[in-house]
Design goal:
The protein is an all-alpha fold and 162 residues long. The protein is 83% helix and 0% strand. The protein is built from 4 helices and no strands. The chain is elongated and about 65 Å long. It starts with a helix and ends with a helix.
């Protein structure tokens, strides 16, 4: 009973961090990006805007993941908290996000700079082929993070004390 307000607060932090992260991914993927790629004059401009937004979402996600994991650790008072399904999903989300942000995106940025214009570079160009492949990998990573996030919400709800 004594620690109940703190337990409630830590659980609230877990859910808040997950919903901010997952909501951000959903909003960018299903609202912002489609609007940018259909309303801006070309894919270069749309890509440039997404290129500013996406790293911010990634770092926000990493912070949210840290909040979730710190809350899980505080609740369990043991590193065994990281072995729970919800925490494992969040750890995977953080890893995939960092792979995208620190591994894939810099390579895409470099290729984009070498091409000058993605839109004007023929699909047959080796640079464009590399870029398109990395874009597919990036989208799959983001999709994986989203699915893991939805799973983490579900799993975290299931971990609530009965």
């Amino acid at each position: 009973q004594n620690g109940e307000p703190m337990i409630t607060f830590m659980r609230d932090l877990q859910f808040l961090s997950l919903t901010i992260w997952v909501g951000g991914i959903i909003y960018l993927s299903f609202v912002v990006a489609p609007v940018l790629f259909t309303r801006l004059p070309n894919i270069d401009e749309a890509g440039a805007v997404v290129g500013v937004i996406l790293p911010r979402l990634h770092w926000l996600g990493v912070i949210c993941g840290g909040v979730y994991l710190a809350s899980a650790l505080a609740l369990a008072r043991s590193f065994r908290a990281f072995g729970r399904a919800g925490a494992l999903a969040v750890l995977a989300m953080v890893v995939l996000t960092l792979v995208a942000q620190m591994g894939i995106i810099p390579r895409m940025d470099k290729l984009g700079a070498e091409m000058g214009s993605i839109e004007r570079t023929p699909a047959t160009s080796p640079l464009r082929k590399q870029f398109d492949h990395l874009h597919v990998v990036s989208v799959r990573l983001e999709g994986g993070v989203l699915l893991l996030g939805l799973a983490a919400i579900f799993l975290t709800v299931r971990e609530l004390p009965k």
